[in-house]
User: Which sequence fits this backbone?
């Protein structure tokens, strides 16, 4: 069963806060899922490499040349950052990252 | 329309009228569009003037895309997904965006932040998920066809629940550019249709290499409609014995066995096969997918778009507040699971292990396909259950995916076709067919003829 310290740690990694009244149920649910997944340990994987994707494509790159699909116009700016909740001219505004301390 | 008996506008309005009449009850559509102003008909295109519904995790420029979440409640798509562009080029019209489990996570559409969708065949039951809105729209004749996305069964299972056809192409066939990403090495877009032939027509329009999605392959695309009626006699059908172990309901098993018998009647050879690592597939899936989810949903931070908490004390507080306020319980569960599985000290035991098991599962299929042409079985262990029956038990919902997730792990194409009603629930049963990578032609051929044999 996940303990409080572990729950706090993964909530912090996930950048979410768990309301006090939801903690116990979440610990139960996550523990049940993790418990179910424990059965993976019985599989013998000593002879295989991990399979991260199934197409077998490797280094699918394009030529290093400008494709000019998105000319920098006013419309593009609007499309790209038009929905940012906080903007100033062409810039997206965010709260302070570095504190003065 | 070719014969002048109806026009594209009349066809569109026919479906609009049906949506206006039934959507309040079924909640299949989240956003409904008007008939397009600009010209859209494309000469010599089978799909010209055909109206479709699009799952609300695919971007259509200038329209609301919610992903079934409050965090994107007012998000307006800033570009067309590649598949939307392709369908436009074929002359398709769009009726609207359909409901889904939040961020495509779920098997019942009960996880949507906008209320569940009801199964048109029995409105006390779920339509399946996560593409439940799309499946309901097709089943209730509120569109000609719909698009869904399938990460662990989300096109095939709702098709099975609603008694229609759902196809998941081989991973790499169809571009994911403009599909809100859930698990990048699993997601594929696929059509939900009334017939297998329709599925082949739509697949023709969707496939293709895309410069904006480097996981798409450059393979030749056959005309999937051309070989539908080629004989299936002599094909070998693999039936995995592990599919018929405990957990499969009797009524589903009966219908699937009937389908296998019918294939035998059509002249196919039936061969029992083994997928020895099948028992680990669901576990591997529920480690690997939440891990990829935790990375893909990190972008929802309230900075560039979506819900943003106004009262954060600093940047990181804004992240915590925006995400906690905007994301529903299932995404939060999966992001936390993923963060745990990828975290230092656990990565090897969980994520790496899961991807090694993934290799074993793919190998099981590759080995089986040396001896058989297609593999068949149930799409889902049960028929459509009641709304509310399983929603408070996440693990019970995960177990509904047991027959669909192996294909996403191995990247294989699969289709679910309706094969009668369960004798107890009287709800549709889905018969699943699985083919080798990039062999949708054989997949569709077998599916089409089995479908025709049932008529």
Assistant:
């Amino acid at each position: 069963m996940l303990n409080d310290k572990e729950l706090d740690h993964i909530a912090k990694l996930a950048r979410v806060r768990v309301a006090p009244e939801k903690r116990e149920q979440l610990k139960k649910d996550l523990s049940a899922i993790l418990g179910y997944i424990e059965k993976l340990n019985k599989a013998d994987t000593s002879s295989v490499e991990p399979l991260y994707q199934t197409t077998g494509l490797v280094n699918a790159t394009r030529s290093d040349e400008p494709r000019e699909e998105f000319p920098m116009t006013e419309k593009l700016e609007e499309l790209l950052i038009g929905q940012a909740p906080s903007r100033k001219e062409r810039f997206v505004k965010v709260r302070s990252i570095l504190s003065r301390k | 329309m070719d014969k002048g008996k109806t026009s594209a506008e009349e066809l569109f309005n026919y479906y609009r009228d049906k949506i206006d009449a039934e959507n309040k009850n079924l909640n299949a559509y989240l956003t409904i569009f008007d008939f397009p102003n600009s010209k859209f008909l494309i000469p010599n295109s089978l799909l010209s003037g055909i109206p479709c519904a699009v799952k609300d995790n695919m971007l259509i420029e200038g329209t609301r895309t919610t992903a079934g979440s409050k965090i994107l409640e007012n998000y307006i798509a800033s570009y067309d997904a590649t598949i939307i562009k392709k369908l436009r080029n074929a002359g398709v019209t769009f009726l609207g965006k359909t409901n889904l489990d939040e961020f495509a996570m779920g098997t019942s559409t009960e996880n949507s932040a906008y209320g569940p969708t009801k199964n048109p065949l029995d409105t006390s039951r779920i339509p399946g998920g996560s593409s439940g809105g799309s499946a309901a729209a097709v089943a209730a004749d509120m569109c000609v066809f719909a698009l869904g996305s399938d990460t662990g069964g989300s096109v095939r299972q709702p098709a099975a629940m609603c008694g229609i056809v759902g196809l998941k192409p081989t991973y790499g066939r169809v571009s994911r550019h403009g599909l809100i990403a859930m698990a990048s090495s699993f997601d594929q877009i696929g059509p939900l249709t009334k017939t297998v032939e329709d599925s082949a027509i739509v697949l023709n329009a969707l496939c293709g290499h895309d410069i904006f999605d480097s996981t798409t392959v450059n393979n030749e695309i056959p005309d999937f409609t051309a070989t539908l009626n080629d004989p299936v006699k002599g094909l070998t059908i693999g039936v995995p014995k592990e599919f018929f172990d405990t957990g499969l309901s009797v009524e589903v098993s009966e219908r699937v066995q009937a389908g296998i018998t019918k294939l035998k009647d059509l002249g196919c050879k039936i061969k029992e096969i083994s997928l020895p690592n099948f028992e680990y597939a669901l576990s591997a899936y529920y480690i690997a997918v939440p891990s990829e989810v935790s990375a893909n949903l990190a972008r929802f931070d309230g900075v560039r778009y979506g819900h943003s908490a106004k009262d954060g004390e600093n940047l990181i507080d804004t992240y915590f507040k925006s995400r906690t306020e905007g994301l529903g319980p299932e995404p939060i569960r999966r992001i936390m699971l993923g963060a745990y599985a990828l975290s230092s000290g656990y990565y090897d035991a969980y994520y790496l292990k899961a991807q090694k098991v993934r290799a074993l599962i793919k190998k099981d299929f590759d080995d089986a396909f040396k001896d058989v042409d297609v593999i068949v079985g149930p799409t889902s262990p049960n028929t459509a259950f009641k709304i509310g029956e399983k929603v408070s038990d996440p693990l019970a919902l995960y177990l509904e995916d047991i027959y669909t997730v192996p294909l996403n792990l191995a990247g294989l194409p699969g289709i679910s076709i309706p094969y009668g009603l369960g004798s107890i629930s009287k709800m549709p049963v889905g018969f699943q067919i699985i083919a080798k990578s990039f062999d949708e032609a054989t997949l569709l051929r077998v599916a089409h003829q089995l479908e025709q044999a049932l008529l």
Residues 87 and 98 of chain A are 19 Å apart (CA to CA). Helices of chain A lie at 4-14, 23-37, 74-81. Chain A is about 35% helix and 5% strand. The two ends of chain A are 39 Å apart (CA to CA).
